[in-house]
Amino acid sequence: MNIEHLYRQVIMDHYKSPKNKGIVADNSYMTVHLNNPSCGDEMTVQVKVQDHIITDVKHQGTGCSICCSSASVMSVTLKDHTIVEAQAILHEFYELIKGYPFNQEILTGDAIVYQGVSQFPARVKCATLAWKAAEQAIIKIKEGKTNG
Amino acid sequence: MIDINKIRKDFPVYSKQPNIVYLDSAASSLKVRSVIEQLDHYYQDLGVNVHRGAYELAYQTTMLFEDARQTVAKFIHADEEEIVFTRGATSALNMVAHAYRDILKPGDEIITSELEHHSSVLPWMIIAKQTGASLIYIPLTSSGRITVENFKSVLSDQTKVVALTHVSNVMGYLTPIAEITKLAHEKNAVVILDGAQSVPHMNVDVKLLDIDYLAFSGHKMFGPSGVGVLYGKKHLLNQLEPFEYGGEMADIVLKDSVTFKEAPMRLEAGTPVISGAIGLAAAIRYIDSIGLDNIHQHTRELQQYTLEKLKQIEGVTIYNESAENPVITFNIDNVHPHDIATLLDQNHVNVRAGHHCAQLITRFLGVSSTLRASFHVYNNKQDCDAFINAVIAAKNFFLAF
């Protein structure tokens, strides 16, 4: 376990200056709210899909640096992908978090720095909370559900 | 004075983990060797059921089990028949609440507090919903304490149940339960006390406090997990509707009716936690061999020593400086507790981060989570120093970004 593998500069940058933060009152977004009941973290994620393409991702929550930065990285990573691609990316991200080999052609960019989380089992839930919320939003959109 | 070096040798985990700085005893204490040996004795040498068998091994096991009941009874100044072995404090508190589902009526009031652990408040929240009774919260003082005056402000002729923690697992505050119980009894209300945090740290005399029920767990007092105790006044236990029905709790069983045995048997359906009960008795004997007062004095010294040093670190907020129990709950400005806890773990310092299964008091403090360091008999000043140094290092680590 090396602490430098967990708290990378990229992660702390996303924590201090998150991308796509702040949720909107707009019904064209699918909204999912998730809690991490053991530590009190909470995360709301909004996903907007047009013609099967994720055109926007928003997030807002309270939590540790791993949780909040991960929401920012998730939004950047999934944006502009089709929902089929996004689901493949989500799968590869979970593989990475578990410390398994992952497809580096599918999962690219800042998300790679969360590789170190696999050495800290207690933090896996933090790193995946926003991604799980996005996953649920995508599933709901695929099922043709609307908000509420 | 107690000999900490000698005491630490009684806890085998230190020989396997010599670097561990264990400050999470409010969640679960470390386990003492004599308890582990007692569990081994049951599984290696006995291994049979209690109360049922007409053979030598069964007699021996039953005797050990009932001796354990006696040891527990003496520890809290109760009678043997008033001790029910349960799965833990949670199970004990649920047993009592469940029985009141058929007793409480719309308009009745249950008094509780925001200081409760979820196991002390949630059963009553559900029972209140099912019965139409109201759940009333004692207004806490600005520092989060229960006072007799504030209790009086919510006590009424409708009060039927008072369910309170003896010591908060987050704040470490001691509830003035003797005075509260006296007032509650004037209204004929029953008092259920969550002793999970108090019994491992202070002398709890159920007769002196005059409480009606007390719940506590073995694993927070050097004993095994999976065993706890429900104390209840004899006449109350005998009225309590059993939470479970099954073996050894029934008296006469006919095709369409059943009578139950006297307490405690009527509340111990099925094979009890035999190893757990005799393990808990070994834990109590260990505590007695050191003395609760000596333990409390020692842990209070560590708490004060740590508080003085923690207060000097800039950017630290301490929520419970006046705590009677050796618990320090705090946060560091602009760093999430979970991030700090991971950094502390890098230095083998084990603390708790989160809401500690007590979301109401965490919300009362106006935060989503806190850090908690809690002490017990095996901790020493080196632990305190290691903790303080790790907090400073963690704070500096995050400041550097």
How would you summarize this macromolecular structure in one to three sentences?
By secondary structure, chain A is α+β, with helices and mostly antiparallel strands. Chain A is built from five helices and three strands, in the order ααβββααα. Chain B has 401 residues and is of the alpha/beta class.
Element layout with pairings:
The complex is a heterodimer of chains A (about 150) and B (about 400).
Chain A: H1 3-6, H2 9-16, E1 29-36, E2 41-50, E3 53-62, H3 65-78, H4 83-97, H5 124-142
Helix pairs in contact in A: 2-3, 3-5, 4-5
Chain B: H1 4-9, H2 13-16, E1 21-22, H3 33-46, H4 56-75, E2 83-86, H5 89-99, E3 109-112, H6 118-131, E4 134-137, H7 148-154, E5 159-165, H8 177-186, E6 190-194, H9 206-209, E7 213-217, E8 228-232, H10 234-237, E9 250-253, E10 258-260, H11 274-290, H12 292-311, E11 316-318, E12 327-332, H13 337-346, E13 349-350, E14 352-354, H14 359-364, E15 370-374, H15 381-399
Parallel strand pairs in B: 1-13, 3-4, 3-5, 5-6, 6-7
Antiparallel strand pairs in B: 2-8, 7-8, 9-10, 11-12, 12-15, 14-15
Helix pairs in contact in B: 3-11, 4-11, 5-6, 12-15
Description:
The complex is a heterodimer of chains A (148) and B (401). The mean pLDDT of chain A is 93. Chain A has one domain: Sufe protein. Chain: A, CATH 3.90.1010. Chain A has helices spanning 3-6, 9-16, 65-78, 83-97, 124-142; strands spanning 29-36, 41-50, 53-62. In chain A, a hairpin with a 4-residue loop joins strand 1 and strand 2 (41-50). Chain A is of the alpha+beta class. Chain B is of the alpha/beta class and 401 residues long. Chain B has 2 domains: 35-289, Type I PLP-dependent aspartate aminotransferase-like (Major domain) (Aspartate Aminotransferase, domain 2, 3-Layer(aba) Sandwich); 291-399, Alpha-Beta Complex (Aspartate Aminotransferase, domain 1). Chain B is built from 15 helices and 15 strands. Chain B has a 7-stranded mixed beta sheet, sandwiched between helices. In chain B, strands 11-12-15-14 form a 4-stranded antiparallel beta sheet, with helices on one face. In chain B, strand 9 and strand 10 (258-260) form a beta hairpin. Chain B is globular, with a radius of gyration of 22 Å. The interface between A and B is medium-sized, with 23 and 19 residues.
